[in-house]
Automatic annotation (TrEMBL):
SUPFAM superfamilies to which the protein is assigned, alphabetical: SP0561-like (SSF140683)
Organism of origin: Kineothrix alysoides
Top-level lineage group: Bacteria
The name this protein goes by in its record: Uncharacterized protein DUF1858
Domain DUF1858: 7-63
Length: 79
């Protein structure tokens, strides 16, 4: 079984098109608009999870924990 990696440097569109299982987890984490038709193809093309979390005032650490509970390894570039 391969590891499920969540790369926070990728856009939401890139993440969701490579793994459709990410969409319901994003909705659970507070990104409920991602399930609306067209959102993934518009805002998702330039929005990353950290940018979206800041915009929606969601706790990024909590989002990482939710993905970890679903078996994802969170990868992020330290700047």
């Amino acid at each position: 079984m391969s590891d499920k990696i969540l790369d926070l440097n990728l856009t939401v569109y890139e993440l969701c098109t490579s793994d459709s299982g990410i969409i319901p987890i994003l909705a659970e984490a507070g990104f409920t608009d991602i399930t609306k038709p067209g959102m993934l193809a518009t805002a998702g093309r330039f929005m990353t999870i950290p940018k979206g979390a800041a915009l929606k005032k969601l706790d990024l650490e909590n989002i990482k924990l939710i993905f970890a509970r679903h078996g994802y390894i969170v990868k992020e570039e330290k700047k």
